Every structure is written in C-alpha cells, then in structure tokens.
Amino acid sequence: DIQMTQSPSTLSASVGDRVTITCRASQSISSWLAWYQQKPGKAPKLLIYKASSLESGVPSRFSGSGSGTEFTLTISSLQPDDFATYYCQQYNSYSLTFGGGTKVEIK
Amino acid sequence: QLQLQESGPGLVKPSETLSLTCTVSGGSISSSSYYWGWIRQPPGKGLEWIGSIYYSGSTYYNPSLKSRVTISVDTSKNQFSLKLSSVTAADTAVYYCATLEIAVAAIDPWGQGTLVTVSS
C-alpha cells in the first residue's frame, strides 16, 4: 500500500497569509494526486487534480505542484472562506489513499 | 451533472452487516469514464477509502477491509451498493458514495454522506 503523509496536521494563519501544505507519498505516484477541501458536516470538495490542474470553479489562489513523491498545495492569499480541513489523495493501481488532513485555523 | 445519494439504515448492531446503496442520477452508471466508490470518515477523523467498482463489476478494495467488504453494481437501477460484515463500534462513520473520474484519478462528485452508528 502507498502511504500518504500530510503536514502539518494543524496550521494557524491569518487572512491574507500565504499557506503551504505538503503531502509525501511512500513511493512514486507520478502526478496522480488530488487535493480536497472539507468543511464541517460537508462532503469534501475537489480543488486540484493531477497534482497541478485547477478544478473548474475553484479560485485561482489555490495551486498545486509536485510529482513523484512530494507535493504541495498553496493558497496564495488566505480568505475567510478557506478555513477548513484539506486532504491529499493518491491513486495507484486501482487503489486510493488519503493523507491524514491539515486543519487550517484562524490565528 | 452527476449526483449521488446514499440510502440505508443509520443504526446497525455489532456483528451484523452494514448495507448501503448509492443512487446515481444525471448520468449513466454504465459510463466507461468512472469508477464508483465508497469512502468513510469516523467522527472527528480523516477519510478512508473502502473500495471501488466499475460498471462491468470489477471491484477493488482497501486491503485493510477486504475480508469484510462487498461492493456490487445494479446497472438497471443506476445504483451501486456496499456491504460491510461483522461490524464493530470502530465502523461508526459517515459513509460517502463517490465518483472517481478515471482520466484524472480524482473524486467528484461525492454524495452528501450518511452517518452509520454501530451500537446495540
């Protein structure tokens, strides 16, 4: 199984801050990585697919990068609506794994 | 656009079998573009992939749950289903059905989720 290690688990930031979340895979997954945002009581929402492709309708302040085993999600200027929990997800050989999540809190 | 809706009991007794169904609307479950899957989230915890199925019936399961999981598809009803046997309190979670778009290997859309509690 491929393990996904996401860091940090919690992040305190202010509106306007640049925020970076990291996800590391236990083996290479090429660019088969997606990022999701989840708010309390709601299903996750797809933000980024194939490591760096922005899902339609997602604000351009969200961006993704990386390939192989190391990936990042960046929010260029944190907005009030962005306080949420973020998950990475890998796909390899018909199997999926999620990272443990990063909760972005108000500082 | 695709929409997914979970249905099934919200309370299951320990040692029994959890059964949920996902109804797909706005598109065909027989599409070659998607896998159909189940993902769960225990209260206050992260996401766990349970398994996926292709319209042909090919299934793929999380190795940690494989011995207890069965996912099936009913193309005539545009539905797919989850059965999880021998449940314990550790299986208490919000269960989501979801669509994995094969070309981009990402999950969208998700169902709204349904809380299943395992308790006597």
From TrEMBL, chain A:
This is IGH + IGL c32_light_IGKV1-5_IGKJ4. Residues 2-99 form the Ig-like domain. Keywords: Adaptive immunity, Cell membrane, Immunity, Immunoglobulin, Immunoglobulin domain, Membrane, Secreted. It holds the Pfam family V-set. It comes from Homo sapiens (Human). GO terms for biological process: adaptive immune response. GO terms for cellular component: extracellular region; immunoglobulin complex; plasma membrane. SUPFAM superfamilies: Immunoglobulin (SSF48726). It is found in: Cell membrane; Secreted. SMART domains: IG (SM00409), IGv (SM00406). The lineage of its organism: Eukaryota, Metazoa, Chordata, Craniata, Vertebrata.
